[in-house]
């Protein structure tokens, strides 16, 4: 039997396609969360897109060229991280013409995703 979350997730994932997105950064490189996790990348959200937790869709920003905190980022949706043990997925956005393998993405998001049963799907 497919759970409601799995059903919703499959519907959302089937609608997710490669697209250019504007990301508002609320956890820039160097940010430390309440659990002591230091963010080695810029992390934010897409305004107007609601994620599985009812808040705006969370996004990991990957770039080989950006190593400083930023306020906003425009890039391409390259992957979706499905959390099998959580209510929301995370999106991965990269600079246009920058590609990352699943293993590279896994390595970069490990600082948080290590706490979840996550799967990465390239778009």
Can you give a write-up of this model?
20% of the residues lie in helices and 38% in strands. The protein has 123 residues and is an alpha+beta fold. The protein has a single domain (4-122), classed as Inorganic Pyrophosphatase (Alpha-Beta Complex), CATH 3.90.80. A 5-stranded mixed beta barrel has the order 1-2-3-5-4. The radius of gyration is 14 Å and the shape is globular. It starts with a helix and ends with a strand. 23% of the residues are buried. Mean pLDDT is 89; it is low at 1-11.
What tags apply to this protein structure?
EC 3.6.1.1, alpha+beta, 5-stranded mixed barrel, disordered N terminus
**Shape label:** globular
CATH fold-type name: Inorganic Pyrophosphatase
Task: Return Rg in Å.
Answer: 14 Å
Overall SS class:
alpha+beta
Strand content: 35-45%
**Named CATH architecture:** Alpha-Beta Complex
CATH superfamily membership: Inorganic pyrophosphatase
Give the helices and strands as they follow along the chain.
HEEEEEHE
Write the layout of secondary structure elements.
Elements (H helix, E strand, L loop, with lengths): L3 H12 L4 E8 L14 E9 L5 E7 L9 E12 L5 E6 L7 H12 L4 E5 L1
Parallel strand pairs: 3-5
Antiparallel strand pairs: 1-2, 1-4, 2-3, 4-5, 4-6
Question: What's a quick, concise take on this entry?
Answer:
With 123 residues, the chain is an alpha+beta fold. Helices cover 20% and strands 38% of the residues.
């Amino acid at each position: 039997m497919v759970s409601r979350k799995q059903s919703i997730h499959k519907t959302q994932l089937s609608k997710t396609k490669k697209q250019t997105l504007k990301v508002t950064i609320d956890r820039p490189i160097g940010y430390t969360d309440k659990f002591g996790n230091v963010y080695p990348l810029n992390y934010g959200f897409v305004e107007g897109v609601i994620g599985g937790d009812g808040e705006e869709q969370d996004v990991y920003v990957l770039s080989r060229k950006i190593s400083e905190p930023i306020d906003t980022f425009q890039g391409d949706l390259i992957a979706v991280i499905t959390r099998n043990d959580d209510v929301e997925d995370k999106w991965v956005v990269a600079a246009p013409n920058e590609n990352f393998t699943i293993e590279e993405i896994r390595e970069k998001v490990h600082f948080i995703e290590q706490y979840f049963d996550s799967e990465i799907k390239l778009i």
